[in-house]
Amino acid sequence: MLLSAASPGVQYAGTFLAALGIYPCIANTITWVSNNTEGVYKRGVTMGFVIGWGNLNGVVSSNIYQRSDRPKYRTGHGVVFA
Known about the structure:
The chain is mainly alpha-helical. The chain is built from 4 helices and no strands. It is elongated and about 50 Å long.
């Protein structure tokens, strides 16, 4: 929807649907890792790795969404879809 539609309303709906599918995964992953790691110290270190790895997405996205690809950002969306 984001790449193929020309209407801003359809693109906005595509963004909403993508967020609807992505954001619950974060809470589910943190809960799953927390419940499956035994011991307080192991759980703390594991949760640090999981949350830290998730925060690296900001580094990746700032490098794949380039100004030269405006306004469709085909490279950035292609990397995310892969």
